[in-house]
């Protein structure tokens, strides 16, 4: 059924870069055989899933939305997709994304622009826009994305689905193509909180192949799915309700907070005064890390290679000039500049210090509340092309999600209403380190 929906909708939606029909049918048949033989089946047996195309899948094209990986067939499998296969999930394809996960609209993909299923003239958000659109349009039941500054939560918000960025280190990133390594995290999309919780269950856990992986006990997340918020202390981040927030988004989120109160939550206003420095801090740290991570694409080991180069040096430069898109080049240049001697202290080191201050704001907040809430994004989905000429206005899309990555915290977006055009609005719920249970419980009770 998922493959049929994909066939029907893809000409318009363009959520997938690769559809893995044969493989999916073979995986589904395997589950059938297990059932017929009376064997035990996995947690996600037979569930169609979309995988963001920056996760390595052995022998299956993995492009990262970039020309530079146009012909890349990974020789190995990411830990998350290995775990999903073991849980019986059926991968139906690789989803579209902004090139190297840099963007907020999926328009930076070198291949295609994904449409928002609610209004195909609009963007699905980004960078995991393909995954969010695919789940929203029933092309798969759940999907994986990655979130460095909001790339799961903002598209979830724009497409009216649930998206969760777990605590930094909870999910192994072995086989995730790196963008900004101190921020990247893989997480689930689902149409319901329960679906997202089940997918998290299948992918969370320690992995010796990722040096940032946390060696912690993984709880049963479904235990957190109780529809009761009695005594739950919910903090509303004051600073997220200021300038730049659409009125209709503010109203929907305020209404959602009222509902949390009716469900028994104790609502408090919380100030995170350094929250507003999140965006500029991110746009120093993330490009710096990206400039180092993307140095490996040189045309030698794998990926695209410029053909007519006359020397090794010109092969490097032409490969990168031809293989990378505008936004990726912009970030490599910003990052290289910020890390260069003479500027390192003024930009990179300063940004790291501000990052610590932002983290301290959250630490102080979590002394008096269990979860924090805010809008996910200041606006609903915008029209394709509307912001492509103005990177700063595009960057503002992640104003409220970025601080969560800087602090390594879990954050979830779930639908909380619609604007006048019928476009979905997202509520962001943020938890303390490894308190995915609190986040899921709050979301589940509201939902
Ligand atoms: N939209 C942000 C950016 O452009 C965040 C991307 C992400 O989380 N991968 O960098």
UniProtKB/TrEMBL annotation:
Residue span, Amidase domain: 1-440
Enzyme Commission code: 6.3.5.7
GO cellular component, one term: glutamyl-tRNA(Gln) amidotransferase complex
Pfam families hit by this protein: Amidase
Gene3D superfamilies: Amidase signature (AS) domain
Recorded GO MF terms: ATP binding; glutaminyl-tRNA synthase (glutamine-hydrolyzing) activity; transferase activity
One GO BP annotation of this record: translation
Signal sequence bounds: none
Keywords of the record: ATP-binding, Ligase, Nucleotide-binding, Protein biosynthesis, Transferase
Chemical reaction(s) catalysed: L-glutamyl-tRNA(Gln) + L-glutamine + ATP + H2O = L-glutaminyl-tRNA(Gln) + L-glutamate + ADP + phosphate + H(+)
InterPro entries: Amidase, Amidase_CS, Amidase_dom, AS_sf, GatA
Active site: 52 (charge relay system), 127 (charge relay system), 151 (acyl-ester intermediate)
Family: Belongs to the amidase family. GatA subfamily.
Subunit structure: Heterotrimer of A, B and C subunits.
PANTHER family the UniProt entry points to: GLUTAMYL-TRNA(GLN) AMIDOTRANSFERASE SUBUNIT A, TRANSAMIDASE
Protein role: Allows the formation of correctly charged Gln-tRNA(Gln) through the transamidation of misacylated Glu-tRNA(Gln) in organisms which lack glutaminyl-tRNA synthetase. The reaction takes place in the presence of glutamine and ATP through an activated gamma-phospho-Glu-tRNA(Gln).
Designated name of the protein: Glutamyl-tRNA(Gln) amidotransferase subunit A
Species in which this protein is naturally found: Acaryochloris thomasi RCC1774
